[in-house]
Amino acid sequence: MAKLLISTQVYENYGYRWKPKGGNDYVILNHTENNEETTKLIMAIRHKVECDNNLFKEHIINWQIVDDNYITSFEQDQLDFEGAIRFPSQVITSE
Fold first, then answer.
1. Domain limits of the chain?
2. From CA 79, how far away is CA 90, in angstroms rounded?
3. DSSP β-bridge partners for residue 3
4. What element of type H or E holds 58?
């Protein structure tokens, strides 16, 4: 089995410009590899991930199918520097 990893870009409004402020990682567990179905799934769950208002924007910039034991670079950094993952990728459901 695999999981679907979705990465986003966050922007904050500074009045005169939008400033990039990193992003987030989301995962959907127990995902099977099928490109057409994955695209439909991402379109169906966009409302759970993306946000667009006058102060804050978050948009999907990438997705990939990864192994169940895959950890993101942020999770790996937590392991390396703190010895534990305190802030894992957020798990979302497809319902």
1. 2-91
2. 17
3. 66
4. strand 56-67
